[in-house]
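Bumping my old thread because nobody answered last time. Still need a sequence for this structure:
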């Protein structure tokens, strides 16, 4: 399906700022995740080259890679939620009118928002527990509680996006992906 350009939406008076800032925030989140993944890939490449040259690798490179991958996965979630990139099975709803499908999708998206919110809350609890324990990684001596921060940000932002888009879907308005900026 083709995206509607912002100029067309402005002309139609259907450009909703709350979705634009959520879209931009989800892009920033995914961009940070991408930068972290890129930095981790560079680090692993340098470590492998150093090992190949007989100079020894970067200490704790695999540990750092694990930490970065955990952070990246969480930071990509908001953009996936915004673009409705999660797996959807519409096998039983194809007979419904479009408006009814949107409302049903809105209901499921609101349930998804609740799940994201609960997950974010439990991650906060886990982070505070790790902070109390003072747990650190073995080789890098990195505080474990800090890796919870990107997960909390990612799931919290996903909950907000799911809530906004779910309410919008229940109202059966124009799909959210049609209100994003196209560069």
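Sorry it took so long. Here it is:
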């Amino acid at each position: 399906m083709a995206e509607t350009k912002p100029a067309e939406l402005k002309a139609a008076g259907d450009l909703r700022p709350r979705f634009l800032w959520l879209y931009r925030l989800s892009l920033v989140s995914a961009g940070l995740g991408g930068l972290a993944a890129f930095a981790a890939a560079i680090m692993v490449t340098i470590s492998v080259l150093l090992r190949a040259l007989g100079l020894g690798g970067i200490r704790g490179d695999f540990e750092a890679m694990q930490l970065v991958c955990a952070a990246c996965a969480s930071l990509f979630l908001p953009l996936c939620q915004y673009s409705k990139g999660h797996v959807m099975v519409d096998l039983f709803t194809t007979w419904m009118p479009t408006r009814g499908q949107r409302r049903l999708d809105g209901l499921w998206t609101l349930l998804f928002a609740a799940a994201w919110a609960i997950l974010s809350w439990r991650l906060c609890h886990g982070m505070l527990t790790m902070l109390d324990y003072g747990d650190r990684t073995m080789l890098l001596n990195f505080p474990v509680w800090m890796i919870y921060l990107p997960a909390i940000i990612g799931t919290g932002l996903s909950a907000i996006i799911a809530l906004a888009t779910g309410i919008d879907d229940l109202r059966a308005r124009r799909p959210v992906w049609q209100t994003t900026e196209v560069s």
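Residues 1-6, 176-183 have pLDDT under 50 and may be disordered. Let me know if any region looks off to you.
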